[in-house]
Amino acid sequence: MNPRKTTLKAGLKSPALILAFLWGWTAAMAQPVEYRRPRTFSLERADSLHHPRLWVGAGVAAVGYPVGMSMLWNSWYAKYPFQRFHFFNDLQEWQQMDKLGHVYSAYQETRLGYHLGYWAGMKPKSAIWTGIALGQLVQTSFEVFDGFSSEWGFSLGDIGANVTGSALFALQQHTWREQRITLKMSTKIPRYPDVLVYPSQGNGPPISLQDRADALYGTGLSSLLLKNYNAQAMWVSVNPRSFAQKATWLPRWLNVSVGMGADNMFSGFGYTWQPDKSCTGPDCLVYAVDPAQFPRTRQWFLSLDVDLTRIPVKNRTLKTVLATLNMFKIPAPTLEWSRQRGVNAYWMYF
């Protein structure tokens, strides 16, 4: 699979109606009580079903979702040929970093849907189902577009990762009414050695590792956040205090994180790539990196982290900002282990 299969892809046939229906259905499960109704656009949570907020949310979803998916389709998928709907097994690609990306994305989308529903006054269980609906609708939409693209295909592995991400949020929220185990990501600007890669087959100019990475992953902030598997790390961030309430010496905001990353990936599989995938025959141009010099590496990390949602602040705007930033791992001292490099320590890892 091409890494340009990002975590933000494409849509279903009737996304607006589906999302609006799911939103309305879960809202109907909430039981209103008498209370002082907050303003529609304030950050104060509604204690019972707030119909203006409900319809604002449904309207934004009904307009924004298909518009966003249409823009993505036209800007990316339309560039590639289509074919009949098909499946593709990509479980062995990218050292499974793309699968962790799907878990992370579904988790965050479910989290967003839950908090929007809860803000609108839904009962907690209804808000959970709203989050699941949003996360699975968005992620499954990506797979449908992949299934019709000749570059990719509908991936059951991706579907499993999507369900895992939504389930991780939903089960914690249902059981503990809080997120004791949070999924986060971090990214850095990768530095590649100044080495030229020569064709292993065919005639063509040598290219640098940086040029190959730029062509493969793209450049800029969006590449670092969405596509560059050599730059990203995905983290499971656990809050010890939430599991040990009597350990008052532990700060409520302190987390311990275990992460996974990868390095030296210049193609989905192995160490070779063909610039023109449509070319067949012995004269086709093929490049290859030396696996002894640049082995594909899976990295494991152990680090400290901060749960920004547990920092005691009263200002609702600041709390919302901190909750948004909590998607990302806080830079901190980190230990790294990999089979190829052994143990390395960083005083600050991004």
Radius of gyration: 22 Å
Strand content: 15-25%
Q: Count the DSSP helices.
A: 9
Number of strands: 11
Order of helices and strands: HHHHHEEEEHHEHEEEEHEE
Principal-axes geometry comes out as: globular
How would you state the average pLDDT, rounded? Answer: 87
Low-confidence stretches: 1-35
Widest sheet, order of strands? 1-5-6-9-10-11
Distance between the termini: 27 Å
* Main sheet overview: 6 strands, antiparallel
What's the structural domain tally?
2
What is the helix content?
Answer: 25-40%
Structural class: alpha+beta
Provide a concise account of the structure shown:
Helix content is 39%, strand content 17%. With 350 residues, it is of the alpha+beta class.
Essential attributes:
disordered N terminus; three-stranded antiparallel beta sheet; six-stranded antiparallel beta sheet; single chain; alpha+beta; globular; 350 residues; 11 strands; 9 helices; 2 domains
Q: How does the SSE layout of this entry go?
A:
Elements: H1 15-28, H2 51-75, H3 97-119, H4 124-147, H5 156-176, E1 181-187, E2 196-197, E3 199-201, E4 207-208, H6 209-217, H7 221-226, E5 232-238, H8 240-243, E6 254-263, E7 272-273, E8 286-288, E9 297-306, H9 316-325, E10 332-338, E11 342-349
